[in-house]
Design brief:
This is Fimbrial protein. Residues 232-383 form the Fimbrial-type adhesion domain. InterPro entries: Adhesion_dom_fimbrial, Adhesion_dom_fimbrial_sf, Adhesion_dom_sf, Bact_Fimbrial_Adh_Pro. The chain has one helix spanning 2-37, and strands at residues 45-50, 55-58, 63-67, 80-81, 85-94, 98-105, 117-120, 123-129, 135-145, 148-154, 159-163, 166-181, 188-190, 193-202, 212-213, 219-223, 226-231, 261-270, 290-296, 310-311, 320-328, 340-341, 351-368, 376-382. The protein has 383 residues and is mainly beta. The longest helix has 36 residues, at 2-37. Strands 1, 4, 5, 7, 8, 9, 10 and 12 form an 8-stranded antiparallel sheet that branches. Strands 2, 6, 11, 14, 15 and 16 form a 6-stranded mixed sheet that branches. It folds into 2 domains: 46-230, Immunoglobulin-like; 247-382, Immunoglobulin-like (Sandwich), CATH 2.60.40. A hairpin with a 2-residue loop joins β7 (117-120) and β8 (123-129). It is 9% helix and 43% strand.
């Protein structure tokens, strides 16, 4: 009985073993079949690590002098760049996983560019604001992907991926920048971080969003500080003493007085500068030209029916029937509201300049006695 029972139990275990073994074989076959049907990306991998240095510095001039009224969009520096580096990261890649380089703005550079651009080798680079009002920075560059160089690329698109497997896939790039005038410049120092570069990794070609790997190491880009100054001359106010005149000094309506008063417009202590002889597009460094214009305090202060005659200031004791007209050193009437060049100006030399002028009363109607004062404004444009 005991032997029979023992035999029965042994037979039961063998059947169970065969069922279990059969199930395991079927399971293994299913696993192998499923593994063979998986897409290649399911087992493709990448492992990237950064290589020193992790900080690159763009070397700008220490100082940049800007003519105050230089047109917006004018370059303020030549192009500067980091070295073309082909191995920000080294990656081990299997089954053609996508890897690459992507640049993003950082530090003093906002995410949205201005409306200005600057052309680099035929490619328009967008200009971003900096920490100094009126001074922007054009940004772009190149991308290196394991033997492939792409660019120049503008900054919003400064990134590239490529699928190539291997034990040493190298990815890198180059950042290129230039300072640009984007508005009224406030003197200050442009300095700070500009951008960062990330290892761009994904199973399939995809956007950088969600596919950048900070763990592989972040490459940082900053700049040498740039002190920005604004170039102008000193232009003091001018008081012209016209003296006392009588009706006999005025020949008739529509003609100037027989008497005139001399005075000078002064441009003092104009600074010397140095032009950029390498990048001809860069207009910073000196005042290239000075223009000036003279206007009444408002357009309605021009006497109707007469050319370039300014009405007297308002007042209860003002004289009537006269205005004021200006003449240059050659006796020609000065055109109002019109820019005129400062003759003889040389922006490479410091100096002061003086423009000889004369003022005359001009009869516009029946003369009545009183004070005959008038005010005009001089606007100077430094470019």
């Amino acid at each position: 009985m005991n032997e029979a029972n023992a035999f029965y139990l042994e037979g039961l275990d063998m059947k169970t073993f065969r069922r279990i073994a059969s199930a395991c074989i079927r399971l293994l076959f299913c696993c192998v079949t499923a593994w063979m049907l998986l897409p290649g990306s399911a087992w493709a991998t990448s492992s990237c690590h950064s290589n020193p240095p992790l900080l690159f510095t763009l070397k700008f001039p220490d100082r940049i002098a800007v003519a105050r009224d230089l047109p917006d969009g004018s370059p303020l520096s030549g192009w500067v760049s980091t070295p073309m580096t082909n191995n920000y990261w080294t990656c081990v890649v299997t089954q053609q996983w996508y890897t690459g380089t992507d640049f993003e703005v950082a530090g003093i550079i906002p995410s949205t560019p201005t409306s200005f651009t600057r052309s680099y080798n035929g490619k328009s680079f967008p200009v971003y604001a900096t920490n100094v009002p009126g001074v922007g920075m054009a940004l772009g560059g190149y991308i290196y992907n394991n033997g492939r160089t792409s660019g120049p690329l503008d900054f919003p698109h400064l990134g590239y991926q490529w699928n190539q497997n291997g034990s040493a896939v190298n990815n890198g790039g180059q950042l290129i920048a230039s300072l640009v005038k984007i508005g009224k410049v406030v003197p200050g120092t442009v300095t700070g971080q500009l951008a960062q570069a990330f290892s761009w990794e994904s199973a399939t070609k995809a956007t950088p969003v969600g596919n950048l790997n900070p763990g592989a190491g972040i490459i940082n880009f900053d700049m040498t500080p740039v002190i920005v100054t604004v170039l102008t001359c000193q232009t003091p106010d001018v008081d012209v003493v016209m003296g006392t005149q009588s009706p006999a000094d005025f020949p008739g309506v529509g003609s100037p007085s027989n008497k005139s008063t001399s005075f000078n417009l002064s441009f003092n202590n104009c600074p010397a500068g140095t032009a950029d002889t390498v990048d001809k597009e860069n207009l910073a460094g000196l005042i290239h030209s000075i223009q000036y214009r003279i206007d009444p305090t408002s357009p309605d202060r021009l006497v109707p029916g007469y050319t370039n005659v300014v009405a007297l200031d308002d007042g209860v004791s003002q004289a009537g029937g006269i205005g004021i007209q200006l003449y240059d050193g050659n006796g020609a009437v000065v055109p109002l509201a019109t820019y005129m060049p400062l003759g003889g100006f040389d922006g490479t030399k410091s100096g002061s300049y003086s423009i000889p002028m004369r003022a005359r009363y001009f009869r516009t109607g029946a003369i009545s006695p009183g004070t005959a004062n008038a005010t005009m404004l001089m606007t100077v444009q430094y470019q």
